[in-house]
């Protein structure tokens, strides 16, 4: 039942831009943010809230422009190397951040991401400062595409990756490592007494989450066509946490559902009023107050009631 | 007597001036079931904390098979085959009982797989066998936080056994377990220890349990060893009967 529901949702997403072409950009951006929110949700399983994951989102987006400048123009290679760059930044930051818990973990992530933001904004000669850097349209398997054609390829690639990466992350969460990650939240002492190196379990999760955020950042960079330091600003990190909580942290689909919900709500709200923040804020309050399991909880409950 | 598996030599530990161990030396030999008894606050749990690397003594050494483990972490000591069951059960409360056990088993064989499922047929069978051993097979699919205290205690012991230890340290294994379940639990535990050739050290307040199952008893009082010997020898010691057992 769950597989059928997921397949129907993906199919609907695939045909939506045909009916309403303006939705293509919104959906691509939502999927990109969904990847990053999934990264945040992975760490939430261990009870760790990162308010700094926009750093990895930005790191990979910047990596795309640097790699393009270095002569790599293929979409696949750019995605792979930029995600690896995000994961590498995650490995470096995670190597000391995973020693901390609770508010210290959250605040240190925020602090590190703001240092990264400041560097992006101030190193004008390298990053273009607050003007940012343009992301060129890459080739796809050697083919030079027009920008509209590339944006369509990017959307369907993102959709495909959403399924592939989603299944892989679910598999990771169901593995012994994934269960150990959840166990960090419930009893770290017992894990240590079972001989499990908690820091290694957390570092792996941190690198995975950074890579996911990086994948989102690279896709967002391609979709927007520009990378700016604001990609790494702390409000962007908060936005990712919001998406993860809004969607529901119980499962992988929650991150994408949360991102799609928020992006579509935002797109609808701006057409109604300049005070679109009011509509978005009110909706978030309603969701958080009346849907403790997030939007994904709606589907989970419906399935349970069918049993 | 067989060779010592674990030795503590000249341990000194004090908390805010109160001595929990004052130049204490003990040895546990292969195949022994050593019971430690003593009044509350006398330092028995502190000894377990030192032997498992949770706290470090001010001075003294702990040797496992002759190798110094005083400065090792609980994780490193666990990987050398020393498991621990706690006075207050240390479980993965949000997970199912069976998942607790399978994670315990995976910790020794295959934790690092990020693609295989935690639940394999072999691992589930092994987990169920351990749960059956402690009488929790019927609770396998319950969330462990919903178990009654006595069953949580049993799961804590089963989790320690999942590590396939050579030495098991138990902190009051029968506390919180109902009077009816106490001896069946100990019978099952002792049977498992004998079958798997596990040496055990247990801190216990129930003197009937100690008298029946310990091969040697060590009486701990105010950071010192007051008496040591076979259960019948120790319980016939007038000083022990007065200060620890509570019978004149």
From TrEMBL, chain A:
InterPro entries: ABC_transp_permease, LivM-like. GO terms for cellular component: plasma membrane. Its main location: membrane. The chain crosses the membrane at residues 42-68, 75-97, 103-124, 153-173, 193-224, 231-256, 276-299. It comes from the Bacteria. GO terms for molecular function: branched-chain amino acid transmembrane transporter activity. This is Branched-chain amino acid ABC transporter permease. It comes from Bradyrhizobium forestalis.
UniProtKB/TrEMBL annotation, chain B:
It comes from the Bacteria. Residues 6-247 form the ABC transporter domain. SUPFAM superfamilies: P-loop containing nucleoside triphosphate hydrolases (SSF52540). GO terms for molecular function: ATP binding; ATP hydrolysis activity; L-isoleucine transmembrane transporter activity; L-phenylalanine transmembrane transporter activity; L-valine transmembrane transporter activity. GO terms for cellular component: plasma membrane. The keyword tRNA processing does not apply. Keywords: ATP-binding, Nucleotide-binding, Transport. Involved in beta-(1-->2)glucan export. Transmembrane domains (TMD) form a pore in the inner membrane and the ATP-binding domain (NBD) is responsible for energy generation. This is ABC transporter ATP-binding protein. It comes from Bradyrhizobium forestalis.
């Amino acid at each position: 039942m769950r597989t059928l529901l997921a397949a129907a949702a993906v199919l609907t997403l695939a045909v939506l831009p045909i009916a309403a072409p303006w939705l293509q950009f919104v959906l691509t951006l939502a999927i990109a943010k969904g990847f990053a929110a999934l990264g945040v949700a992975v760490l939430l399983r261990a009870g760790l809230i990162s308010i700094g994951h926009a750093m990895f989102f930005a790191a990979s987006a910047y990596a795309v422009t640097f790699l393009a400048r270095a002569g790599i123009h293929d979409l696949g290679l750019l995605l792979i190397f930029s995600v690896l760059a995000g994961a590498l930044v995650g490995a470096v930051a995670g190597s000391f951040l995973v020693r901390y818990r609770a508010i210290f973990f959250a605040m240190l992530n925020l602090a590190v991401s703001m240092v990264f933001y400041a560097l992006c904004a101030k190193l004008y000669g390298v990053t273009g400062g607050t003007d940012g850097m343009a992301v060129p349209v890459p080739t796809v398997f050697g083919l030079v595409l027009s920008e509209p054609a590339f944006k369509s390829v990017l959307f369907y690639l993102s959709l495909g990756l959403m399924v592939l990466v989603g299944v892989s992350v679910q598999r990771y969460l169901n593995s012994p490592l994934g269960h150990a990650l959840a166990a960090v939240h419930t009893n770290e002492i017992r894990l240590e007494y079972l001989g499990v190196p908690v820091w290694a379990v957390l570092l792996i999760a941190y690198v995975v989450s950074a890579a996911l955020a990086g994948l989102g950042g690279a896709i967002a960079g391609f979709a927007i066509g520009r990378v700016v330091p604001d990609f790494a600003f702390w409000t962007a990190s908060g936005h990712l946490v919001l998406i993860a909580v809004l969607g529901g942290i119980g499962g992988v689909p929650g991150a994408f559902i949360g991102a799609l919900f928020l992006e579509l709500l935002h797109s609808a709200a701006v057409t109604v009023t300049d005070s679109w923040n009011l509509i978005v804020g009110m909706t978030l309050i309603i969701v958080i107050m009346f849907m403790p399991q997030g939007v994904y909880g709606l589907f989970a409950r419906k399935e349970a009631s069918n049993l | 007597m067989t060779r010592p598996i674990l030795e503590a030599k000249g341990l000194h530990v004090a908390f805010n001036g109160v001595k929990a161990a004052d130049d204490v030396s003990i040895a546990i030999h292969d195949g022994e079931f050593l019971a430690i008894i003593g009044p509350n606050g006398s330092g028995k749990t502190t000894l377990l904390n030192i032997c498992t690397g949770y706290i470090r003594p001010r001075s003294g050494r702990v040797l496992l098979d002759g190798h110094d483990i005083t400065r090792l972490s609980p994780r490193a000591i666990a990987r050398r085959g020393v498991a621990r069951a706690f006075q207050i059960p240390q479980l993965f409360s949000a997970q199912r009982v069976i998942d607790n056990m399978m994670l315990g088993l995976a910790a020794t064989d295959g934790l690092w797989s990020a693609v295989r499922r935690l639940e394999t047929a072999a691992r589930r069978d092994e987990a169920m066998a351990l749960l059956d051993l402690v009488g929790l097979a019927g609770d396998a699919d319950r969330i462990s936080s919903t178990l009654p205290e006595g069953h949580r205690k049993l799961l804590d012991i089963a989790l320690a056994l999942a590590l396939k230890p050579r030495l098991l340290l138990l902190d009051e294994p029968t506390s919180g377990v109902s009077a009816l379940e106490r001896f069946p639990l100990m019978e099952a535990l002792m049977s498992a220890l004998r079958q798997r050739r596990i040496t055990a050290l247990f801190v216990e307040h129930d003197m009937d349990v100690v008298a029946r199952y310990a091969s040697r008893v060590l009486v701990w009082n105010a950071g010192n060893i007051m008496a040591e010997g076979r259960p019948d020898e120790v319980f016939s010691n007038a000083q022990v009967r007065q200060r620890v057992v509570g019978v004149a």
